[in-house]
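[step 3/7] fold_predict: job queued, chain A
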Amino acid sequence: MTSKNTICLWYDGDAVDAAKFYAATFPDSRVGKLFYAPGDYPDGQQGDVLTVEFTVAGIPCIGLNGGPHFKHNESFSFQIATDDQAETDRLWNAVVGNGGQESECGWCKDRWGLSWQITPRVLTDGIADPDPAVAKRVFEAMMTMGKIDVAKIEAARKG
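[step 4/7] structure written:
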């Protein structure tokens, strides 16, 4: 990787599976190099995949097979901007349908516990609308949703 800053994500032995899923699911994503442990470590043995380089939507990451000691939580998430309902549905359904779980306001978790915000641009534009009444309507509509419904957000924006 050539980036000076890389996100390191902790996995319990299945970082390569996660990297492959992200590469297959999100645009501008790929799996890079695998690095193997040069010796035994607390949750693995010499020769096991220790880390995998990957990119998610253009963001360089490293998956560390560190064991069961630390879990992902909502304090970190990837926010993926979508252009329409079809893209929103495809990404949401991929994450949730691969052993993940739904949450609220466009959030979901993948099967590894990593949080994702599948966020249509119409939502972020609506919440940032200079008219406070429009922003409030859009925000209130979002607060009732799991996966974001673009048509309902557009309707809230129009009033």
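[step 5/7] annotate
The mean pLDDT is 97.
The domain at 7-65 is CATH 3.10.180.10 (2,3-Dihydroxybiphenyl 1,2-Dioxygenase; domain 1).
exit 0
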